[in-house]
């Protein structure tokens, strides 16, 4: 939204391609973070299970997002739960090598400072959206961001927890989208986007 996240070419020299399948946990609880990832495609859910039994979804990361980048600058002793929702293709980077590059290359350091600042602003903006915009607008924006080649299949429960609304409300708006010819439900794929332009119009109603 605020930052053109074009990865620095010098970084690609120390990265390698990786693929993670659906339902895989990239980071393990109580383990040290040794790698971070630049997502090319797919979606990862980041969440916390609280002691009272409730769950908070912190974020979803998808194409052109980073996962684990904060460990370049601080010790993330409390690893958040994570799960691959859609098969992920990414670049994997060794934390130590990338930290060394940050120390030696000011452009790379500035790149990550800009990315992390953008992430903070984006999350703050999302909190404001939750208070000021309709669920139809927010859900249209979400679907556009996390659809894969015209297919949307994020679990309704995850979306309701992320947007802090009831499962029933999410289901109601999705049903409206289907009735209005925007989406079509597919038993195997999830939802097929029939009218991308209408979704974009709903997104622009901010």
UniProtKB/TrEMBL annotation:
One GO cellular component this record assigns the protein to is: cytosol
HTH crp-type domain sequence ranges:
133-197
Output the SUPFAM superfamilies linked to this UniProt entry: cAMP-binding domain-like (SSF51206), Winged helix' DNA-binding domain (SSF46785)
Per UniProt, residues of the Cyclic nucleotide-binding domain are: 18-101
Q: Which InterPro entries match?
A: cNMP-bd_dom, cNMP-bd_dom_sf, Env_Response_Regulators, HTH_CRP, RmlC-like_jellyroll, WH_DNA-bd_sf
Pfam families documented for this protein: cNMP_binding, HTH_Crp_2
Instruction: Say which domain of life the source belongs to.
Output: Bacteria
Q: Which CDD domains match?
A: CAP_ED
Q: Which UniProt keywords apply?
A: DNA-binding, Transcription, Transcription regulation
The entry lists its GO molecular-function terms as:
DNA binding; DNA-binding transcription factor activity
Name the residues that span the membrane: none
Q: Which organism is it from?
A: Clostridium sartagoforme AAU1
This chain's protein is named Catabolite gene activator
């Amino acid at each position: 939204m605020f930052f053109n996240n074009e990865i620095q070419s010098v970084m690609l020299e120390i990265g390698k391609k990786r693929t993670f399948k659906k339902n895989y946990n990239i980071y393990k609880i109580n383990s040290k973070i040794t790698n971070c990832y630049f997502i090319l495609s797919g979606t990862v859910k980041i969440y916390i299970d609280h002691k009272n039994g409730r769950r908070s979804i912190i974020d979803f990361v998808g194409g052109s997002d980073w996962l684990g980048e904060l460990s370049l600058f601080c010790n993330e002793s409390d690893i958040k739960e994570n799960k691959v929702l859609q098969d992920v293709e990414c670049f994997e980077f060794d934390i130590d090598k990338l930290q060394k590059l940050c120390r030696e290359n000011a452009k790379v350091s500035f790149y990550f400072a800009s990315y992390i600042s953008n992430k903070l602003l984006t999350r703050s903006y999302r909190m404001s959206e939750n208070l000021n915009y309709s669920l139809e607008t927010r859900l249209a924006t979400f679907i556009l961001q996390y659809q894969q080649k015209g297919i949307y299949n994020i679990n309704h429960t995850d979306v309701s927890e992320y947007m802090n609304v009831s499962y029933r409300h999410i289901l109601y708006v999705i049903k409206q989208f289907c009735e209005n010819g925007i989406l079509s439900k597919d038993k195997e794929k999830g939802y097929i986007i029939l009218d991308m332009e209408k979704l974009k119009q709903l997104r622009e109603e901010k």
